[in-house]
Amino acid sequence: MAKKVVATLQKGGGKGYTKAIKMIKSDKTGAYTFKERIVLKEHVAAFLQEK
């Protein structure tokens, strides 16, 4: 699926977007989960900073 998303983003007007993946540690179990979002390149830092 990741290849399909990347291929779609590279076509046409999607060049201003990127796929951001953040790893989050659970307070209860200590396990890690991943949060993925497609955001504008300018908003990647804000996405990684939020909790």
Can you walk through the features of this model?
With 51 residues, this protein is an alpha+beta fold. The chain has helices at 2-10, 44-49; strands spanning 17-25, 32-40. 29% of the residues lie in helices and 35% in strands. The chain has a two-stranded antiparallel ribbon with strand order 1-2. A hairpin with a 6-residue loop joins strand 1 and strand 2. The two termini are 26 Å apart. 0% of the residues are buried. The model has no long low-confidence stretch (mean pLDDT 84).
Name some characteristics of this structure:
51 residues; alpha+beta
- State the end-to-end CA separation: 26 Å
Main beta-sheet annotation: 2 strands, antiparallel
Structural class: alpha+beta
For the secondary structure, the number of strands is 2
Name the poorly predicted regions: none
Oligomer type: single chain
Q: How many H/I helices?
A: 2
Helix content: 25-40%
Spatially, the strands of the biggest sheet line up as 1-2
Mean pLDDT: 84
Radius of gyration: 13 Å
Q: Work out the strand percent.
A: 35-45%
Please write the string of helix (H) and strand (E) elements: HEEH
